[in-house]
Amino acid sequence: MTSSIAENELQSHFEATISADLRVEPRDWMPEGYRKTLIRQIAQHAHSEIIGMQPEGAWLTRAPSLRRKAILTAKVQDEAGHGLYLYSAAETLGADRGDLTDKLLDGRQKYSSIFNYPTLTFADVGVIGWLVDGAAICNQVPLCRSSFGPYARAMIRVCKEESFHQRQGYELLMTMMRGTDAQREMVQESVDRWWWPALMMFGPPDDRSPNSEQSMKWRIKRHTNDELRQRFVDMSIPQAEALGVTFPDPDLRWNAERGAYDFGEPDWSEFMQVIAGNGASSVERIANRRAAHENGAWVREAATAFARRASTKENAR
Ligand code: BYC
């Protein structure tokens, strides 16, 4: 009886915190569903950053100049940093990093659909910066106001860095568009391959998004998947015009009544296939991640042995 009264009080305090737009912090009481949803989303986000190092990382040894190589190296390192902040945010909820990695490797947790497509040309590096980081910013800026403190704070730094990534991608593409016909064709061909997968990054349409409603109530998410997708389309079209490329969508047109662009339907059956682990590069991505994890075992062992020794010494004092 007493414990259920206490639980009700905690629940009311949690709800009041959410409705007052205040932050929930790791030591605060929270419903189990809220904790689980956050671990699921943050872990998926962390895995995406780490797996997301691979498609662009594949071009590090083939960048066309030292300058492009230095920029790309910095960007890929930033993604590793984002993954680390996010795993740390998940740990504040009681998750264990090793366990999250196991869940990624055996398919119990997902990572973003976008990283299951191959990077076939150097133009893909520019298009990923422009469209993929662009979509990520659109999705993540509202997450800076997410109700869970550590996630919201991690997002502030992540968004600043993603914004630099987007500009470097756009600048790379601008340079290529000022180059030869072959370079311009390479950019257009890359845009044609990445446009639809970029739209799918925002997740399934609202009427097929099982988590959105509750996540919006908890203010983990601030906008629905379709709202953010629309925002991204509206933002990208003038950028494409300035660049001199087109998007592969015959239904794309300005709708004056809505004050927004109409656009076609992404191929949701392809999306479902990709998130089920059947994307063009899915097997390669997980195999590389598994190999990196196994090759790093000695580092983890050495670090934990050192921590154990340090704490034994501390206790002996
Ligand atoms: N890919 O009910 P829904 C980056 C899953 S990294 C895969 O709408 P939710 C970058 C979803 O998880 C960008 N799976 O879910 C890095 C759920 O399955 P589970 C990563 C997806 O959570 C390197 C099911 O579909 N960004 O920027 O309400 C280089 C139903 O979906 C996807 C983030 O992670 C997808 N695209 O909304 C460059 C942002 N979409 O978990 C750039 C944070 C949906 O129930 N995450 N699913 O098995 C979010 O904002 C939300 O989790 C989502 C999905 C909008 C993605």
TrEMBL record:
Gene Ontology terms: cellular component: cytosol
Stored InterPro entries: Aromatic_CoA_ox/epox, Ferritin-like, Ferritin-like_SF, PaaA, PaaA_PaaC
Database matches in Pfam families: PaaA_PaaC
Q: Which GO terms describe its biological process?
A: phenylacetate catabolic process
Q: Name one GO molecular function term.
A: phenylacetyl-CoA 1,2-epoxidase activity
Domain of life, per the record?
Bacteria
Q: Which PANTHER family match?
A: 1,2-PHENYLACETYL-COA EPOXIDASE, SUBUNIT A (PTHR30458:SF2), PHENYLACETIC ACID DEGRADATION PROTEIN PAA (PTHR30458)
Q: What is this protein called?
A: Ring-1,2-phenylacetyl-CoA epoxidase subunit PaaA
